[in-house]
User: Fold this.
Amino acid sequence: CDLVADGYRPDPDHTRGGAVLLVHGGGWSGGHRDTLAWHAHQLALEGYVACTIDYRLSGTAPYPAALIDCQSALKWVRTNSDRFAIDPNRVGVVGSSAGGHLVACLGARDNDDPVSARANCVVDIHGIHDFIPIGKTGTSPVKQATAFLGGSMHEKPEIWADASPVRHVDANTAPMLLLHDPDDELVPYEQSTLLAEALMRAARPMQFLPTPGSGHGFAYNPEHAWTRRVWPTVVTWLNQYLVPT
Assistant:
């Protein structure tokens, strides 16, 4: 399966030497990299090499296909660091909804390859972080999760647990900025509180920013009041971990 990424490069005189991957949402069954074009452009203006990526959707291949694709994209950026004039140890990730889940996985997990698949920092906007409570209660988005994970929680409990980034948090987990509307009707706010608590227990750097009244998916609209309000915080978070002191 050939997948595509769109790259945004900064002015050579304004480069920070870091890179950011942006991962779209869409319930793991839809969405497109173009929905994060504004964000990538803004990051390029900030001096980052930014890439919006696609990944295999649940209708094509269930978990872990999407995660493998995101990890491959991250490793590809690192492998081509000379080409992009970036530091391979300064690669951050930003994602919303299903993309929030995937970037949380990129921060909490790695692989055994010589090139690391773990991001150096994460911006996670209302992602799913523990599928088990979703499966037990049958709350939204259980249908999307079942399709993504290739079966129900009762059919594939090990997969539902393995796909939950909260269950992989440890002393190596990347710093994470979490954003979530307490009244989110699609992804329960509890999902971000669970991850925040796990990060605190592991003594990992984190910031949890509630966005009341923003709704689910607000981040895709650059004119949304909350998007404008939190974007400087996103940039500051990335700068804290991707810009050398």
